[in-house]
Specification:
Length: 221
């Protein structure tokens, strides 16, 4: 079976505070650019046959160093684009938490239809269709890179493992991570999940001084 490397785009300054969705003009930040270069180095010896990308800037910018290093063109594929969040894109996560549709997302994702956008059922169907179509173009063991978005990759893994839609949020997909799926004739196989070149851990919080506690006792709770 061909092997698809599903690569999430690198860091940007929008996604940590707002739902970027399909907003135009969301570019990689300095960390994201470094991640893209590191990906190109990590895949220097991978026998890639092709590189596909979502049409959004942050995905194209992640794919560019890899394509340049391998002498391959980046093939833009609209099916790899981010979820269409419709009216929700651009809102802060604080705003989203107040919305019933966002609350439903975590309780009953199969029932979610983003206002003015797509449903999660459609997202899963779209993702499965696109990846099957790409895999059908390549021979057994051939390697293809697909630069896309976190929820698209979550849906790909969920569908390939035969899990229900309600399980998709259980998979953590870091920026600039690689998830490898073998697709084609036979049952899909998950080869790697959320592989990053360097594991990063949260920094420990600074110890709280006694004077800080007495100044604001509520922080002790």
């Amino acid at each position: 079976m061909p092997i698809l490397l599903l690569i999430r785009h690198g860091d940007n300054d929008v996604f940590k505070t707002r739902l970027a969705g399909r907003l135009p003009g969301v570019h990689l930040n300095a960390d994201g650019l470094r991640q893209a270069q590191t990906l190109a180095q990590d895949l220097a010896d991978a026998p890639l046959k092709a590189i596909y990308s979502s049409p959004l800037e942050r995905a194209l910018e992640t794919a560019a160093p890899l394509a340049a290093a391998r002498g391959l063109e980046v093939r833009v594929h609209p099916g790899l684009i981010e979820v269409d969040y419709g009216e929700l894109q651009g809102r802060t996560y604080k705003q989203l938490k107040r919305l019933k549709v966002w609350q439903l997302l975590h309780r009953q994702p199969a029932a979610v239809q983003f206002p003015g956008g797509e449903s999660l059922v459609n997202l899963m169907q779209r993702t499965a269709r696109v990846l099957d179509e790409l895999a059908a173009q390549y021979d057994d063991q051939q390697l293809v890179a697909c630069v896309t978005h976190g929820d698209v990759i979550r849906m790909a893994v969920t569908h390939s493992l035969g899990l229900g839609l309600e399980e998709f949020e259980r998979f953590q997909i870091a920026t600039a991570s690689i998830t490898a799926l073998a697709l084609g004739n036979g049952r899909p196989r998950l080869l790697h999940l959320n592989q990053v070149s360097r594991l990063e851990w949260p920094k420990p919080s600074e110890p709280v001084r006694t004077t800080d506690l007495s100044a604001n006792p509520s922080k002790t709770g």
